[in-house]
Amino acid sequence: MASIIKKTTSICPECHALISADYVEEDGQVYMTKECKEHGKFKDLISINAKHFRWIQQFTMDSEAKIKNPQVKEPKKGCPHDCGICSFHKSAPAIAIMDITYRCNLKCPFCFANALTERGKNIEPSFEEIKRVYTHFRNIEPQPPVCAMFSGGEPTIRDDFPDILRMARDLGYIQLQVATNGIRFAKDIDFLRACIDAGMNAMYLQFDGVDAEVYKKTRGADIWHFKQKVIENCRKLKFHDIILTPTVVKGVNDDQVTKILDYAIENIDVVSTISYQPVSLCGRIEQDEILKLRYTSSHVIDALNKHTNGETGWMYPMPILAKFAKVSSWLNNNPNVLELTCNSICGYGTFLFVDPKTKKLRDISKLFNIPRFIKLTDKWYNRLLKKRNSERTYRDTFNFGPISKTIGSLLDKGSETALKLQFAAELLTTLRNPFTDGMDNFLRRARLFLELMINSSRDNAADFLIKGNHLLIALMQFQDGYNLDVERTSRCLVHYGYIDPKTNQVMAVPFCPMNTIHRPRIENELLMAQAVTKKETEKPPVPKIAS
Fold first, then answer.
1. Could you give the maximum distance between any two Cα atoms of the chain, in Å?
2. Alpha helices for 392-493 (secondary structure H)
3. For 166-206, how does the pLDDT look when each residue is reduced to its tens digit (9 = 90+)?
4. Do 339 and 373 contact (CB within 8 A), yes or no?
5. Rounded Cα–Cα distance for residues 155 and 143 (Å)
6. Are strands 347-354 and 316-317 parallel, antiparallel or unpaired?
7. Could you give the count of Cα atoms lying within 13 Å of 475 in the half-sphere of its Cβ?
8. How far apart are CA 177 and CA 159, in angstroms?
């Protein structure tokens, strides 16, 4: 018998009208059910583990950094139709993303840009337009995104990509990551070096499996040797920030999920993360086919746990780190706060400690007391939020002249240092018994963890992963017309940027609504504007004068 877990608002996958939807439990699994008056009933699988789905609902967090300067101040059609971003949005963006070209060196069956490039059309903004979009994101108040992501097409097709990276770095982005198939990086190590020197510090590497046949199915070509060459080139250049990014399609490469984990463990010196992304179901699909094709993040969790005898763990949702990220930044007076206040369904995962000698895995929950960690960060978040909102600084109090201001500043610095050390000391108590995993491993983790607390820089976060032999397992379940939840879209952290040709205004569109609703309209508008611009700049031929 079905029971309703919670109600929400979704869209009709055919007409995109807003309709009511229910999350219901049936036989230990979770489905979304909804009905459009015109197009009928729809049912989609959300999770194969209802217990886990119910459990993660408690972790969704409202952000105190709601955008103060949205593009659409008075929404008219309702989320997700008023992007944006509109004043209804509940979270600040963490990642600013832009399609910097639609050109590509592959023709993947699963690609949003593929439909245009198949027709011989291309959208490619100028360098100045790209700079304008990423500048806009850095001006978002009160909290701009810290990560600039470059998508396409294939971003590395652009010869000026190193210049684009330098530009984003100069704007203040802390993480510069490229979504790439890796072919150019495999073929041209000098270009890879140029991109690293320009600031690229995360490679979002398309990685669907570990054999040639997989890529023939998912990408239409045997490019497995290029994937291996990218790994080799990164190792030569001591680049340690590869994020393996599998698009998982049921019946196509879901058998590769555990093989990709094994590959990452063997290459942990250059692979820091696996970001599993079950494919979105685009286009019109018959109801009986939806349930056959749907592969969810819960399937990935199940496969990994069976493969590792449970060592990959329960997997917590991303928002459990939201308060920790903010507290750490606030204590370090770091303006680059990482926003993690997405809906708990959107993304979850775990850190795995990989023993450098035996390659044995230990889930983070066996190394840290996670419930205690959550409780402590909750306490410190509330404490610091209250302090930031109400308390005066010593510099404000001792405001009698240059000398008194200096004294006040020194007192503020001393107070901040004391708070930072107290926070770090309390969090160290979340480390579990060192004798369960060897004193050497315990001391290394404790030192790296303490350094991360005292100085919350990206470098120290990377050290915790790389030098600590930790592998981040992330799962991102993107939405489509069949499972879209308006509550989820209102908390999206990944925003596409583009310049609206009608208004000349930079717009920001959350990731899932962009690909589910807005992309065809936006692309057509950009193509039309591009055609007009090209026509206006073309000089008419000079007529010949008869002699």
1. 98
2. 394-397, 402-428, 439-454, 458-466, 486-489
3. 999 999 999 999 999 999 999 999 999 999 999 999 999 99
4. no
5. 27
6. antiparallel
7. 26
8. 17
